[in-house]
Amino acid sequence: MTNSTFDIIVIGGGPGGYVAAIRAAQLGFKVAVIEKHSNLGGTCLNVGCIPSKALLYSTELYHTIAHKAASNGIIVKGLSPDLPALMTKKNQVVDQLRNGIKALLKANKIDVIHASAQIISPTQVKAGNNVLNTKNIIIATGSQVIELPFLKFDGKIVVSSDDAIAFDSIPEKIVVVGAGAIGLELGSVWSRLGSDVTIVELLPRVAITFDHEISKMAERIFKKQGIKFELDAKVTGIKTKAKTTILTAEKAGKELEFPADKIIVCVGRKPFTEGLGLENLGIERDKQGRIVTDNHFKTNVPGIFAIGDVTDGPMLAHKAEEEGVALAELIAGKSGHVNYTIIPNVIYTDPELASVGISEQEAKEQGLQVKIGKFPFAANGRALASDASEGMVKVIADAKNDKLLGVQIIGRHASELIAPAVAHMEYGGSAEDLARTIAAHPTLAETLKEAALALDGRAIHAI
Ligand code: FAD
Ligand code: NAI
Q: What is the pTM for the complete model shown?
């Protein structure tokens, strides 16, 4: 490998990096991916999106059988979770996808080097003992968990999501710090398996990035499912009493105590750039440590680009992937582009939360006059027939020209229902366009159409 020369070297084999590499290879470039782990797929495949969704699916199935089988005329006896089998299923899914990515890179004739990469100059990258020459460098090194200084990870009791997707027994009492995407998803997983879960959150709402009405409804539904919430509570540390670990928090001047077998800390992630040699090259980073790029993913050093979690913007796999594609196309002289205003955001709980564009509150903050249309899942035939009556769709449109500004959904399959809303917004669609799009009957998609109709008081199945 010594003295190899590439058109593009991608550092990081996560969704940003490997997707950029594939698109670049499709465009005729000679590409290498350097990944320090023995597996490709990054955070998303190995400890993020995919393992968490496998656990969410298996535990939702278990929960549904436990709570809905009888009312659907199904008699189940001796139901219990088999944690090792559940983890095996999750691991098999991850393995299959790891092999899939490996095969894709091979088919696209991309060189994969498993080593820690260090950038020596804008045209040279060190990978282990080899120095590789290149015309362009793409940094896609992702992110890592944030550790609270007074709540250090010990891998046993105080853990991150990396550990919480792989517990080897079902903990009795779990305290989750942070009611964001990870807290709600992993809190749901373990609560469904029987753990007593309390989520402690600094802010007054769960799922803070969503519309207030949606996050309030989510909180109410999750509470009904058995998850406890302590909102507006500032975590202060841990102590031990009679061999029990206790998380402490402060709320309205009072100290709260939460005994726990496991404390899952999920208070966000931070960009990962250690060992890359950015300091030597003078590559600019912001106060949060994110690599600063322009709208063509260029860093301040010519020939070096950055995409994904290591840069500004939502830390989402599809954001990283879209940036990877756009960047490869820009390097090829094409007009690669990411529409940041319509990146969908999903939390994969039951019900799911999904949004695109801006919320009612954000629209008002921006001084926009809006029209709102809402439709409850409880008024949808398919939802009722499939035990999915909890939820609502909220459509936000500009009062002046009817342009869709945002769609917020809480309900079964919200992650899929948001896709047509994203497409309408991509084409600059109006609420009327959404209202006139035919949805098959009976489908949950009818809720989206009805919410758009409700904007002008025309919903058919709601008063
Ligand atoms: P990463 O996936 O982090 O990949 C970066 C890669 O770079 C890693 O493989 C790393 O080993 C490698 N690397 C770093 N430094 C070097 C170096 N010097 N040399 C060589 N290699 C290096 N997002 C969603 O959109 N949907 C979800 O459902 C979702 N669920 C999540 C659940 C959890 C529990 C977590 C933690 C995250 C989740 N995310 C989800 C976020 C998603 O995983 C990230 O946004 C995404 O992985 C970012 O992709 P990336 O390519 O930028 O970085
Ligand atoms: P997050 O940013 O989604 O949520 C963190 C929560 O922790 C916030 O509500 C915050 O107010 C709270 N918090 C911060 N400090 C706190 C403290 N000291 N005490 C109590 N609460 C505190 O971060 P999370 O859940 O760790 O996820 C990290 C990233 O991974 C997210 O940015 C998200 O984009 C991505 N992710 C995406 C998923 C998805 O798309 N479904 C699933 C899981 C993760």
A: 0.98
